[in-house]
Design a protein that fits this description.
Four Helix Bundle (Hemerythrin (Met), subunit A), binds 5-S-methyl-1-O-phosphono-5-thio-D-ribulose, seven-stranded mixed beta sheet, 10 helices, alpha/beta, 342 residues, Rossmann fold, 18% strand
Length: 342
């Protein structure tokens, strides 16, 4: 992704130091932070220094590879223990499990301590590279859906910042812009953490893509006025039947889009599809700190005695989804089984 004219990935490794863009401080402050140690990896994921499913997956992969370097005579048990610790950082993004498992499997092909350590680093790097390439391809496939003049609504941030690079929902939008289509993006602000207003708008602004931030409650207004041509979002976990979990509010957007005959596309790499979840009811949904709802910019907005509920994701049933854009092409929710062996 381009930031101030320079190309960046969201998360990468230099030697054994993990580097990531500190997302909590964007758009005001662009800062790269070093992440050292499994405690710091878990904290970066939990506090959302790094967030978005594929970016969490890459952070988990790099984090495990880094932690393996510090093991003395690493065994399968040691490596599994670290994996089981990091996986608890956030529950909904399936990519975390996927990224960690890739490192476990490849590290354990090593026969000696040196080989195990080397293979862990190679596995994490290959995972991140594959993830970036998957997102690039999602852009190419998704671009075919976008017509010149289209107005696209997106929710949360499923951009390059939510991935290693390119984004999922924003990748087709980036590609359409690169192919010189005229497009306009409605950016849902995405309460409570404002990933739309803070991150998606930042990415689109940096790339010169025409957009406007809207409050979450305004999406229906624009859809009912026939001012939205399609909805594209990312997802944290796709169930085998095509139900998807994504940022809280996605379900509402999909229902209103359906009511207004607007297509809803979900962009996701195969690393987000969890065939062990038969349907959306079995996807774990993260509950976050109620303070994220009760306070804005550190100032409490609700009365002192009022509690809050803060589910971070909701499930959109497959029946509201027109297609899932993957690195292998675009699939209807009911066709996901075709991707199972890939
Ligand atoms: O809580 P977040 O910011 O990690 O939630 C992110 C999302 O909901 C994204 O849409 C999803 O992870 C897909 S990212 C390409």
């Amino acid at each position: 992704m381009k930031i101030n004219g320079k190309n960046y990935r969201t998360v990468w490794m230099e030697g054994t130091i993990i580097k990531t863009i500190e997302q909590n401080q964007l758009p005001e402050i662009f800062k790269i932070v070093d992440i050292i140690g499994d405690g710091a990896v878990i904290s970066a994921i939990q506090t959302m220094v790094v967030r978005g499913a594929p970016a969490i997956g890459a952070m988990g992969a790099y984090g495990l590879a880094q932690a393996i370097q510090n093991l003395h005579q690493p065994t399968k048990k040691h490596i599994q223990h670290l994996r089981d610790k990091i996986i608890l950082a956030r529950p909904t993004a399936y990519d975390l499990e996927h990224g960690l498992n890739s490192v476990v499997v490849m590290a354990l092909t090593g026969q000696t301590e040196d080989e195990i350590k080397k293979m862990a680093l190679v596995a994490a790097q290959e995972y991140a590279d594959r993830s970036a390439e998957a997102c690039r391809l999602i852009g190419e496939y998704g671009n075919a859906l976008i017509k010149n003049g289209d107005r696209i609504l997106t929710h949360c941030n499923a951009g390059a910042l939510a991935t290693v690079d390119f984004g999922t929902a924003l990748s087709p939008i980036r590609a359409a812009h690169r192919y010189e289509k005229s497009i306009f993006v409605y950016v849902d602000e995405t309460r409570p953490r404002l990933q739309g207003a803070k991150l998606t708008a930042f990415e689109l602004y940096q790339e010169g893509i025409d957009h406007a931030v809207i409050v979450d409650n305004a999406a229906g207004y624009f859809m009912a006025r026939s001012e939205v041509d399609m909805v594209i979002t990312g997802t944290d976990r796709v169930a085998a039947n095509g139900d998807v979990a994504n940022k809280i509010g996605t379900y509402e957007k999909a229902v209103v889009a359906h009511e207004n005959n607007i297509p809803v596309y979900i962009a996701a790499p195969l690393s987000t599809i969890d065939f062990s979840c038969p349907n959306g009811d079995t996807i774990p949904i993260e509950e976050r700190d109620p303070d994220e709802v009760l306070s804005i910019n550190g100032r409490r907005v609700a009365s002192d005695g009022s509690p809050a509920l803060n589910p971070a994701f909701d499930v959109t049933p497959a029946k509201y989804i027109t297609g899932i854009i993957t690195e292998k092409g675009i699939y209807k929710p009911g066709e996901l089984h075709l991707l199972k062996k890939q």
